[in-house]
Amino acid sequence: MKNFMIQKGPGFLVCAVIAAISQYIAKFVPQIGAALFAIGIGVFCGNTFLNKKCFQAGTSFSERNLLEYSIVLTGATLLLSDIFALGLKGIGFIATQMFLTICAAYLLGKAFGMKKKFRLLMGAGNAVCGSSAIASVSPILDADTKDKGIAITIVNVTGTVLMVLLPILTGILYQHEMLHTSAMIGGTLQSIGQVIASADLVGPAYVPTATIFKIIRIIFIVLVAYAFSHVNTDPDQKLFSKKKHTEGKVKTSIPWFIIGFFIMAILHTIGLIPRPLSELAHLVSQQFEIIALAAIGMRVKFKDLAAEGPKALGYGLTIGACQILFAIVLIKLFIG
């Protein structure tokens, strides 16, 4: 605990304060919501007077760990019937959307002059779950640290732009109908934090369904990693040509918090989590979300974006535009 407070305490405390300020401001501007204020204040503070190394460990913990805890607690507020309500059509939508996103990232990357490994990293990051997916497939692709860092930066920037754009777009296209709006947000956005923030901008009621769409995408990381283990990343070889060396094994598994989410949902379904406890889990989950979103804002650095240049940013935003177009068509085909 002492080491935690020394290393991660400053960053966590800053994010918690930003979250509290954001929720207070949101009372006066409820149509914007605490989520967007948390990210906006976090971006401002993280690029100005709080841009200090001593906050990095705490913001990293808040962004990743608190979101994972929040997802587990969200399971305690849902029934299995809510999760399985997506049905085969919902799963078909997600699988097709992910496949098309990976194909688009690979083909567009070639047009932008990007390396094969970097294109595959961008495909996984955009199709599955942002930074986590990139970290999962990097060892499989034997990607270097620089490519991994650039991919994470560009994917996060793309997701941040779409996070604000999608609530507006779904209002125009679907008048914020629950299933269609949740499918667009949960089936398109790059990270789980961005999904939660974007859905919350539409309304808190949209967060659980959008999260379910996203969770199914995260589960599919196992299939994506397996597929990537069979591609040839040699720049002089075709993508699906036989590898010279195949001793590497896939070591990707379903993240622990997804398993925890389903365990909590099962316990809630069979009545082992009473309503007061479920309501408490919902309250704590919301607080974790806002703190994590403040951390996401704190970790967006303008200098990193400028360093990547317009070509890399253009590549990422073009993939994001393709994801939106794919989702519009596939929602029509699979969901109606």
TrEMBL record:
<protein>
    <submittedName>
        <fullName>Membrane protein</fullName>
    </submittedName>
</protein>
<feature type="transmembrane region" description="Helical">
    <location>
        <begin position="212"/>
        <end position="233"/>
    </location>
</feature>
<feature type="transmembrane region" description="Helical">
    <location>
        <begin position="91"/>
        <end position="108"/>
    </location>
</feature>
<feature type="transmembrane region" description="Helical">
    <location>
        <begin position="150"/>
        <end position="174"/>
    </location>
</feature>
<dbReference type="GO" id="GO:0005886">
    <property type="term" value="C:plasma membrane"/>
</dbReference>
<keyword id="KW-1133">Transmembrane helix</keyword>
<feature type="transmembrane region" description="Helical">
    <location>
        <begin position="312"/>
        <end position="335"/>
    </location>
</feature>
<keyword id="KW-1003">Cell membrane</keyword>
<keyword id="KW-0472">Membrane</keyword>
<keyword id="KW-0812">Transmembrane</keyword>
<dbReference type="InterPro" id="IPR018383">
    <property type="entry name" value="UPF0324_pro"/>
</dbReference>
<feature type="transmembrane region" description="Helical">
    <location>
        <begin position="254"/>
        <end position="274"/>
    </location>
</feature>
<dbReference type="Pfam" id="PF03601">
    <property type="entry name" value="Cons_hypoth698"/>
</dbReference>
<feature type="transmembrane region" description="Helical">
    <location>
        <begin position="32"/>
        <end position="50"/>
    </location>
</feature>
<feature type="transmembrane region" description="Helical">
    <location>
        <begin position="66"/>
        <end position="85"/>
    </location>
</feature>
<comment type="similarity">
    <text>Belongs to the UPF0324 family.</text>
</comment>
